[in-house]
Amino acid sequence: MELDAAALAGREASGGPGESRESGDPREAAAPGMAGDHREAGVPQVVVRRALPSEPADRGSASLFVAEAERQGVRADRRMLHVGPEPAGERVAEALRVRPGAEVLARRKLLLADEVPVRIATSYFRLDLFGGTPLAAPGFVLPSLQAGIEALGHRFGHAEEELIAREPTVFERETLLLPPGEWVVRILRAGYSTDDTPVHVLETVCAASRHVFPVRQVAGADEF
């Protein structure tokens, strides 16, 4: 089954605007160097797939997005926007089991398909577990974020994933170059270790008109 992004936005229209935006100070301005060229020339049409749930092999790769895009014949790129502490929004705090507004480690990147911005993906971690570790360093974690988590002794137990459609924040609209009135689809995936410790919360904000969401059952080993 595939969920059409426009249909999702319409289905959630009555409740979406009241959802938590999970926004903080680092997200109040657009990504440097992104807005001007695309707005003047017009944003090309591109549609990519985001599987729900994502394939375990993709989550264990160097980049979930790049692995998915390569199978679709799309040229993928990633740009790191922010690495550092920031206040946790309500849903992220709940998933990490900290109080709303508590400082957490955020790793935020912009994902592009054929040079068009399509997603903002932010990984959130508890500072008491990951502060001062290689995950708190600038840049991408090599060979992968999953390997970095496991190197610190965490093993995957289970995950919970939710999807909503809502209006974009100012930061999301500017960074994703969204036209007036377009919504986003927000996927929040919370990963827990074998001892039920909240290890990794991934928030993916997708430009609604640039995605379809195939839904299927995934068998086999899973990853954070």
UniProtKB/TrEMBL annotation:
<dbReference type="Pfam" id="PF07702">
    <property type="entry name" value="UTRA"/>
</dbReference>
<dbReference type="InterPro" id="IPR028978">
    <property type="entry name" value="Chorismate_lyase_/UTRA_dom_sf"/>
</dbReference>
<protein>
    <submittedName>
        <fullName>GntR family transcriptional regulator</fullName>
    </submittedName>
</protein>
<feature type="region of interest" description="Disordered">
    <location>
        <begin position="1"/>
        <end position="46"/>
    </location>
</feature>
<dbReference type="InterPro" id="IPR011663">
    <property type="entry name" value="UTRA"/>
</dbReference>
<dbReference type="InterPro" id="IPR050679">
    <property type="entry name" value="Bact_HTH_transcr_reg"/>
</dbReference>
<feature type="domain" description="UbiC transcription regulator-associated">
    <location>
        <begin position="71"/>
        <end position="212"/>
    </location>
</feature>
<feature type="compositionally biased region" description="Basic and acidic residues">
    <location>
        <begin position="19"/>
        <end position="28"/>
    </location>
</feature>
